[in-house]
Amino acid sequence: MTNAPKENTPRDLDHQAIIDDGSSYTNHQKKPTRRSLLPMILLVLLVAIAGRAAYIWVTGGHEFDLQRFAFMEPGKTEFFPVTGEIYFNDEKVTHGHLEAYATSGNVKLTRVIGLISEDGTFEFFTDIGGTLSKGLPAGTFKLILQVNYPATGFGYPDHMLPEKYYSTETTPVEITVTDDRSKNHFEIRESGEIQLQSGGSRGQTGGSSNEGVDHE
Question: Which residues make beta-bridge pairs with 146?
Fold first, then answer.
C-alpha cells in the first residue's frame, strides 16, 4: 500500500521559506522595502531641520558652551528675583537676551537666561531640568550679551555688539546677586562700535531691524 504524500502544515511551510531564501522571514511576513522606509527617513530629516531652526530661534544661533551655564543643585538652591535695564551707547537695548555664567556654584548643569524686553528691561530665569525658576541664586555672574542681527535662513545671525561681549573669557559685564532683594536690580551701561552686518549695513541696538540711527 502506497502512503499518500504528507501535506505540509503552516509550520512546515514557514520552515521551508527560511531554507529557500536564507533569511529569517517566513512566508507570512513581508520584508521591508526601500519604498516603505522612505516616509520614516523623510520624517527624521524634517524633525532634524525643525530642531535646528528652533535652536537658532531660541539661542540666537550661538554655539553651545558650558561656560554660559550655571551649576547648581535643584531643590536645594534659593532663587532671588534679578531685574534691570540695559543700555548700549546710551540707548536702550530692546531685543536679544543675556546669558549668565556663575563663577562659582554647585553640581547641576543649568541654563540661566535674561530676556530683554522692548522697553530695555530684562529679568532672569533659571532652567533646571526643563523647569523655569524666576531669578538667580546668590553669587557672582559674568554676562554674555546676545544682541544679534536677525538670522537669515538656517545660518547663524551676525553679532551686533563688539565680539568681547559674546565670550565669558572677555566680557566685562558682571553682576553679584545677594540675598538682599533690594540690591538685585542692575543697570548695565556699555559702549562701543556697532558691528557691520553681512552685506555692509549697520544696525541699531534699539530695534530688531536695520532701520534707525546708525552708530558710526
Answer: 97
